[in-house]
Amino acid sequence: MKKSKVKMTIQNSKLTYIKSIAKRYPNFDFCILHFEFKKGFTLLEMLISLSIFSVIIMMAAGIMISVQNAREKVGTVLLMQDNIRFTLELFSREIRTGALYQTTTKGRTACGAARVPLNSELSFTHWNQGFPQPRTYFLYDTDNNGAPDTIMRVKQGSFSASDCSNPSIVTPFTDTDNMAVERLRFDLFGQTPGASDGQPWVRIILRARSRGVKTQLQSVLNIQTTMSQRLRDL
User: Fold this and answer.
1) Is residue 33 one of the residues assigned to a domain?
2) Beta bridge partners of 153
3) Is 90 helix (H, G, I), strand (E, B) or coil?
4) What is the tally of structural domains in the chain?
5) pTM of the entire structure?
6) Torsion angle, alpha carbons of 8, 13, 17, 21, to 10
7) What is the pLDDT of residues 39-68, one digit of tens each?
8) Which residues touch 224 (CB under 8 Å, ≥6 apart)?
9) What angle do CA 214, 220, 223 make, to 5 degrees?
C-alpha cells in the first residue's frame, strides 16, 4: 500500500511534539516549509528613529513656513509698487502741466496735521485744457497718532477744517489699508522767473511701509524722482 504524504508548516512551539507523533504513524510525513525567528526593535533604536523622523518633520515645516512668508512678502511689495506707481503717475501728470510751485502749510493748518514735517506739502496751479485748477498735496496722519500714513489731494485753492472731511474736496491719495506713507518731501528748484536757472522742477522723496502683515514681513520702499515744468518759464 502506497504511503500518502501530508505537507504542512510547523510552528516552532510544537515542533518536538509533532516529531514524536510522526514516529508512531509510518504513513505520516512532514516538512518545514517556513521557519524563522522574528525580532523586534530595542528602545534605543526606537528613540533614534523617532529623533530622525522629528528632525525631518521640523525641517519640512520650517521650509513650508519660509516659503509662505516669502510669498506674503512678495505680494505686499507688489501691492506697494502698484500704489506708488499710481501716485507718481498722477503727480507727474499734474505737476508737469502745472506752474507756480510753492511749499505751503495750508493742509497742516486746516486739517490738523501740525505734526507732519515741513516741506511735505506742495501747492501749484494745474492747467487742464487751458483752465487753471489749484492743487495741493500734503502728508497727513489719518490715525492722529503722530505717524503720517497717507497723502491728501486738495482740488481747490483755499479750504477749511470742514473741507477736510469732504471727499469731493480733500481725498486720500494712497491706500491706507495696505500701505503707510511715512515720509514725503518736496524740494523746489528754478523758481526764479527767466531762463537763468532753467525750468522750474520738483524733487520728490517718498518712503512707504507695507501694512496688514506681520512685523517681520513688512517691507519699506524709498523712492526719489524729479519732475520739471513743461510750460515755458519766461
Assistant:
1) yes
2) 137, 171
3) helix
4) 2
5) 0.66
6) -10
7) 677 888 889 989 999 999 999 999 998 888
8) 203, 204, 205, 206
9) 160
